[in-house]
Amino acid sequence: MLVLLPPSETKRDGGSGGPLRVAAFAYPALTDQRSTLVRALVALAHDTDASVAALKLGRTQLAEIDRNRVLASSPTMPAIDRYTGVLYDALDAESLDAADREFAGRHVLVHSALFGPIGALDLVPAYRFSHDSRLPALALKKHWSASVAAALAETSGLVLDLRSEAYVALGPVPKRTGSFFLRVVTEAADGQKRALNHFNKKSKGEFTRALLKSRRNFETVDELLSWAPTAGFQLQPGAPGELELVVEQIVAAKRA
Predict the structure, then answer these.
(1) What is the C-alpha to C-alpha distance for residues 204 and 125, in angstroms, rounded to an integer?
(2) How far apart are CA 84 and CA 7, in angstroms?
(3) Closest Cα to residue 224, out of 240, 235, 210, 213?
(4) Total-model pTM
(5) Among 65, 62, 54, which Cα is nearest to 135's?
(6) For labelling, which of 12, 171, 203, 213 has a CA lying 20 to 30 Å from the CA of 88?
(7) Which DSSP helix (H) or strand (E) runs through 183?
(8) Any residues with CB less than 8 A from the CB of 76 and at least 6 apart, and which?
(9) Which Pfam families match (predicted)?
């Protein structure tokens, strides 16, 4: 089983790991592309105005440019600890025990716009770069899509794609048996379902945490669907190649 998570714009400062080593990340075939983006982002950071435009920053966010300027030499920490925000707050990786984290290292990827898909325990610095960031003469979708899709095609078994559609565009999982895109939906009293946007992140974080705490390497979607209610989740088949994580309407309203 492999779980694909989106990254987050917000990231924790600091870290106790050594400088960035992109060659040590999962999928080493992507090393050259990672290095190209790192060099381009560091170079961009020496032009404040260009960085503000490329990264869509407000004038109160100039510290993000400082992060990028030193990202090749700044301290690192595991990816699931570096990212913050709604999904990662619900995942609460720092509170997982050693066995849970080791399981995450083998079964969870975070798809970074800067680094591509990386292992949950791969060591990353603080940086600012998103799916809609723009680098001079470099289109992210063209840079990543085919090579990331090829890397993910090497994966066998059950794949759960929890990324946003914007990150899916940077490297889709090849359509095959055993690969599923997860949608978080709420069901109204009349039975109609609607997708949740911002508030789906908390549900995805809670679901991922439960998977890690279970430490079960599900081989088929049927095994996953059987387990879900025992962990308190309503998970069901959706459109072809999709699963729906159903959140009760009252719960979704409280989160709003």
Answers:
(1) 24
(2) 9
(3) 235
(4) 0.92
(5) 54
(6) 171
(7) strand 179-187
(8) 15, 17, 18, 19, 20, 82, 123, 124, 125
(9) H2O2_YaaD
Which H helix or E strand runs over 145? helix 140-152
User: How many alpha carbons fall within 13 Å on the CB side of residue 180?
Assistant: 25
Tens-digit pLDDT string for the chain (256 aa): 999 999 999 999 999 999 999 999 999 999 999 999 999 999 999 999 999 999 999 989 999 999 999 999 999 999 999 999 999 999 999 999 999 999 999 999 999 999 999 999 999 999 999 999 999 889 999 999 999 999 999 888 999 999 999 999 999 998 887 999 999 998 766 666 777 666 799 999 999 999 999 999 999 999 999 999 999 999 999 999 999 999 975 444 444 4
How far is 253 from 188, CA to CA, in rounded Å? 11
> What residue type is 72 in one-letter code?
A
Quickly tell me which residue has 């723009």 as its tokens: 134
Euclidean distance between CA atoms 71 and 39, whole angstroms: 10
